[in-house]
Amino acid sequence: MDIVGQIQGAVAGHEAEIAEGIEKVGDFVDEKTGGQYADQVDQAQQFLKDQLGGEAK
């Protein structure tokens, strides 16, 4: 099985927890950078959550 398939298998059923982690990491980055990159962080968070699918929103 390729790496993408392994990741998809590991993510299945854990979308909500991963989305929460994405939010926490984004908040951490915003805190450490003083919000200087808030727009870019928000875009990255949304992109990653979109990759998880509809259940993570």
Describe it.
The chain is mostly helical and 57 residues long. It has one domain. It contains 3 helices and no strands. The chain has helices spanning 3-11, 15-32, 38-52. Helix 2 (15-32) runs antiparallel to helix 3 (38-52). The N and C termini lie far apart (28 Å). The mean pLDDT is 90.
Low-confidence stretches: none
Strand content: under 5%
The domain tally reads 1
- Helix count equals 3
State the main characteristics:
57 residues, mainly alpha, 3 helices, 0% strand
How are the elements arranged and paired?
Elements: H1 3-11, H2 15-32, H3 38-52
Helix pairs in contact: 2-3
In short:
This protein is mostly helical.
